[in-house]
Batch of 4 targets.
Target 1
Amino acid sequence: MSTTQAAKLNSTQGSPERAERPSRERPEWLQKLLDYPDRARTFLHEVRVEMKQVTWPSQSEIRSTTVVVILTTFFFAFFLWLVDQIASWGVVRFIKLFGH
């Protein structure tokens, strides 16, 4: 018998309790629960790394894009109000023409 085979035999014959009781795997939900702190730590580390790569806009860029958004909103609000007024006028004319 070789020395590795003898070592394997001795390790399996160690204590009687260990030989009689087969090792059980943890349920998946328990393993996920126990792995949570490591996964959370990894996630936060990755977030920090990604946030360092972000190119943040300057204050003047933020101001100019905000003005563009506000002006665009007013333009479309006026345009949709105008379309609604024209459609409303058309519906009223249609009802008066074919109403009675």
Target 2
Amino acid sequence: MKLLYSAIDQHVPGTKGGSIHVRAVADGLAALGHEVHVATMVEADTMGEAARADGDRVQGAPQWHDVRTPLGRPHFRLLRTHALRRLARELRPDVVMERYHNFGGEGLIAAGSVRARRVLEVNAPVIDHAGSSKARLDRALLVQPLRRWRDWQCRVSDLIVTPTRAILPAWVPSARVLEVEWGADTDRFRPGATGPLPFAPDDRITVIFIGAFRAWHGVVPLVRAMRQLADRGRRDIRAVLIGDGPERARAEEEARGLDNVQFTGALPHDRLPACLAAADIGAAPFDVDAHPPLSLAFYWSPLKVFEYMASGLPVVAPDLPRLRALIARDEAGVLYDARDSHALAHAIERLADPAMRARLGANARARAVARYSWQAHCAALDAALTRLTATSTSGASRADAASF
């Protein structure tokens, strides 16, 4: 089938989870034989492929179309509706898939102009969490335009793809929801991957963290745990923190005087497999209390966790129901009680046992390959799209005139 994928607020390639997700899904669906066109912010090393979108098609590769949000702001996505509609009319896709944003909908509108099936990828809450300032603003506007627009996006979608339906309106029928995890490239992320490293290998146990250094990623609690370990004389354990973001300065201040914590800054995604293969433990110390929307559910499909597991690393993470299901207690990692300020350090210390690390790491790799690869994700998506295009009633005819 021919598919147009609208992700115009993402940079491809890029180092953030959304960028990696878009490229992996596009590549995976193309590898399964679909003709995939992606509207996104195309960066330098994919411009060659983007240019070929209007010329000879490269067999088995997605075609990249450089469509950018005004000023690079996702809140202005709807201003690109005309560009998406024009692209849809040129391509005449069977399916238009859009990456959800509250202020999005440009792909769904474009799909209606060519009567294509509509698919919405949802990895952020459609519903409001308790105490949401956005909800208060919406109610102050009386007609609740934000909620009505979100509901419209869900109503017209023939299929909603999400890691958890807990972030969708309760009225969305289960028959139109595909709950599926995102994934990791288990061919590239593997034990033994090689490449240049931003840290020198040594005899210490290396705990690695990859993230955007936002408050809820938990990098500051990880640094505090490393200080606790150092205070207990555990000089055989170090942490390598890869990434950048608003919490980096605070984390560096917390690490002042420590020789067991190293910051590398952000790295290109293609350098990460070697970094993980050179480490011993993958840290995912999410702090859900620092991000109020997570009160709805741990709705992320955490890329770092899948890449750690694919690399054969045991994972250290807080004991939350969703992470418990992904990792399994003492099967692919060690879970800890985030309410205990010393629990993260104790969890890391448990994995100082090399036999335990080897057992959990092997289990993690097997679990990632079987359940959490991009191949598994795209196979499930492919099956759902095939069923969708075989049916006769689409959101394009069902709800174009629906009120919002």
Target 3
Amino acid sequence: MDLDFDVEYSIPAARGAKAESGKGKVRLNEETLTLSPGRGAAVLFSWRDIESIKAADYKAAVSAFSGDKIELSALGYKYEDFLRMASGFRNEQLIKDSLLNEPLKVSQIEARYARSSPQSEGQCELRVYETALLVLPEQDELIRLPFRDIKDVREGELSVTVEFESGETLEFSRLGNKLDYFQTNLSDAMDRITAMGAEFIKTIVPGTSGLALRKLAQTLKEGRLMPLAEIETLCPGFIKGLEAAVCADAENKKEYEFLKSLSRKEKVRFGFKKSLAGGLAGDYLLFLFPVYCADAKKSGNAVIMEAFPMGLADKPAADGAGKRATYFFRLAGRKDYALSKSVPELDKMMDVFGRFFNAAMGAVNFRRTPLFLSEAKLLEPKYAVYRAAAARIPELRALRDLYIGRVIHTDLENWRENIGNLLDFNVRAADDSAKWLKSQIDDEAVPEEGWTLPQSCATHGHNSADSVEQ
């Protein structure tokens, strides 16, 4: 659907071109904002190109990442319609480019928000997803609030205040007759995720109940990886129960025990993640196995990420696009690691990495494809959404820098051999940017690792579903 607005425009001088102003038309649709002057060529921006839309005094300033700017005015009574539609189209693109797609529970809740840090306020739309609350401001950047980061929700007489673990707050007001509707749906969505965690914990340690179960479920939240040793302190017997569940499948048992044998066991981290596709089929258990020791010449300086299906049944197929993979990241710079740190120093570095990993994976909603695609693959048109995500999300860029490679699950012996080869390569390599070559070859053969491209790519003739990889 195209929406047209009569405007007056001005374009400041830039790149050797003269300043320009006059009357024209602006057309908005799902893909672009196009300014058509009364005379001359049209100026077209895709929503992905636009860095910001700032409004004041009935004027809208559109700025692109390229540095190009246009100012629109004389919109008359259509000024607010223009802002609402332009911000709406841009926010939808931001949701895709920020890899935030997941099952939507409630949308189209209009409100006013006030954020404590960084301070901002204005009109917004609220959406409740399966694992997060999304705030879509009319002018500022969208705000995603994973339920795991929410400490408290306080209900006022005419407002709702959300407090985060960081101490930051967001207050929502002017919800009108949707105040109770929003409160109820946000509470229900958060309760479902907490209940999911509690049910999982009970399957691992059946005797856990009451206050102990509640305390652990409020700590070991969906999408948060914690040190297993810390979980064991909160719930004695958890590690034994978890290992029994994982190792109930013979193939999982061999894989788990091999990775555990390589790792610094005291620093292994664990968490569980809800499928982005909805339902139970894609829920999975996620481990971080740190590999290091005081001897820098031995295989190490790595953190291994491995996932097992939460149901531990219906394992993904081991061929074609359904292949699973084991992922590897650097713990430290290779030259720095070669200076041979002590184990306590490396333990502290692992603590820092674990916190960073939670933030980085949360920023990409635990999607893995944007981690392993090479720079060359990112330039392909069908991966534009991942290229945009890498440009927009600093945590993703940082995690891509630490990424070493991945090992595809084939037969057990080949998988083990390739892990050994990758770890040896990581110690021998001196350049932090060096990636394991075989991983790049596998990326060409299995580009999507069992899950399909986001819907923003589907509009260009590619896969239409958006589900989590196994």
Target 4
Amino acid sequence: MSLSTVRVVATFTVRPDKVDDVGRIALEALVRPSRKDRGCLRYDLCQDLSEPTRFAMLEEWESEAALDAHLAQPWLNKAIERLGPMLSGRPVIARMRDVSGE
């Protein structure tokens, strides 16, 4: 993996009654289309084993430009609007780079 890749860690908590819906909708509306975006190296939805209402989206992009192009996709905003009411708070989103040197 190149040091120029950009990783995104987005964590969010959902309402307990929406856990199943969020998993299904996120897979359909975010994960599958995002994996098709140019420059996407990884796009995974993960659920916390000890707290099922906690999720993380783990992403890796070839570059900042690829991530910015992904974020500009019109379908992305529609998916976020669809999922928004199911969340119990604001997502925490961090852009990161690998500094492990491996």
